[in-house]
Amino acid sequence: MVNITEKIKEIEDEMRRTQKNKATEYHLGLLKGKLARLRAQLLEPVGGAGSGGGAGFDVSKSGDARVALVGFPSVGKSTFLSKITKTKSEAAAYSFTTLTAIPGVLEYGGAEIQILDLPGIIEGASEGKGRGRQVISAAKTSDLILMVLDATKKAEQRALLEAELDSVGIRLNKEPPNIYLKVKKAGGMKITFQTPPKNLDEKMIYNVLRDYKILNCEVLVRDENATVDDFIDVIMKDHRKYIRCLYVYNKIDSVSLEFLDQLAREPYSAVMSCELDLGVQEVVERIWKELKLMRLYTKRKGEEPDFSEALIVRKDSSIEDVCDQIHRTLKETFKYALVWGASARHMPQRVGLGHMVSDEDVVSIVAK
Ligand SMILES: Nc1nc2c(ncn2[C@@H]2O[C@H](COP(=O)(O)OP(=O)(O)OP(=O)(O)O)[C@@H](O)[C@H]2O)c(=O)[nH]1
Ligand SMILES: [K+]
Ligand SMILES: [Mg+2]
Q: Where would I find the TGS domain in this sequence (predicted)?
């Protein structure tokens, strides 16, 4: 049996050889679909020791959110961790100084944010070069990827890392495609478009679905910019992870002002020098912003709200999430909640478990 890595290589080669035009479009779409399937297989844990499956490092999640430091060797990941947390991670001028995941805790805005310093990764990481696979698995479990880049190195490093992450199903700074897919038991395929997309048609969708042996389903494409890649992402949604990414250029002490200015203007980017302590605090603030954590204050009946200690919850949290955050069993005795703040229509608003809270709301839980 040809192994999966070889099959992947074959398809990648064929895709490279195939010229992109109207005539080859459908064939390329099918190849992309096959590639996505094989890559998912490659990441599946096969069981047994040393199988190189999807396992990450043995660091348990803690705190209110997790941020993974991902980058080539010697870009300054460990230096950064040691700067913003109390943890000291060894830093040195040679590659692969860090060999495992080193967690640190960043305290900010009343939250405890776990920062994971990771070994450097190189091209081919997703196929298992170095500790690449493990690093990528750890990145997949994070709420934010901080891609640390060396400002003095070529711009390609960013695209290379993105391609590595992309090939294992990590989508950076992207929303899941706006395509509805429901697999059914019978009834054939029903494919509809809200506005016909420029780069995706019924034939393409039909071909890909058939290749995936999905013969009965309902598809509704809502986005006119949708591509076949988006459609494949929807089919493979259990293997896709949509994660925010902040690109941080370190070592700006060693580049020209003009170049620095150019880097700083890139989207989702920040610049810093750990060595000169320039921009580091700004990066911390950006981490906080990107995580979109919310600070809530609790209030007991008849008392003033407790502003001394915030309750940290994730964005898009409901009162139910708030209850879970306070105590595992609070929900069971929950009667209603009173909410003051941006999410409340009047002060206070009496709400149920489904109510969505806003940053800096004051919440009072009333039990049965
Ligand atoms: N000029 C300059 N050097 C820096 C800066 N930050 C870190 N360094 C140096 O870059 C080298 C690599 O730093 P590390 O923190 O070990 O890099 P790393 O990304 O953790 O490397 P690996 O663990 O090997 O992947 C060290 O010699 C640091 O002193 C910076 O802002 N400017
Ligand atoms: K290093
Ligand atoms: Mg390191």
A: 292-367
Q: What is the pLDDT of residues 26-51, one digit of tens each?
A: 999 999 999 999 988 887 765 444 43
What value does the CA radius of gyration of the chain take, rounded to a whole number of Å?
Answer: 24
Protein residue with least CA distance to atom 27, ligand 1: 93
Indicate whether residue 75 lines ligand 1 (CB < 6 A).
yes
Ligand index nearest the alpha carbon of residue 283:
1
The whole-number pLDDT of residue 49 equals 40
Six token digits for residue 180: 């509805």
Residues 235 and 248 in one domain: no
Q: Which of 239, 259, 279 is the last residue of a domain?
A: 239
Collect the ranges in the chain with pLDDT lower than 70. 1-2, 45-55
**Structure confidence at residue 52 (pLDDT):** 43
- Report if residue 49 sits inside a domain: no
What angle do the packed helices 25-43 and 228-235 form, to 10 degrees?
A: 30
Q: Which of 74, 122, 272 to mutate to test the pocket of ligand 1 (most atoms within 8 A of CB)?
A: 74
* pTM beyond cutoff 0.90: no
pLDDT at 89: 96
Task: Please check whether residues 95 and 120 belong to one and the same domain.
Answer: yes
Atom of ligand 1 nearest to the CA of 79: 15
* Residues 93, 170 share a domain: yes
Do 37 and 83 lie in one domain? The reply is: no
The separation between the first and the last C-alpha atoms of the chain, rounded to the nearest angstrom, is 63
Question: What is the best residue among 70, 97, 146, 271 to mutate for testing ligand 1's pocket, by most ligand atoms within 8 Å of CB?
Answer: 97
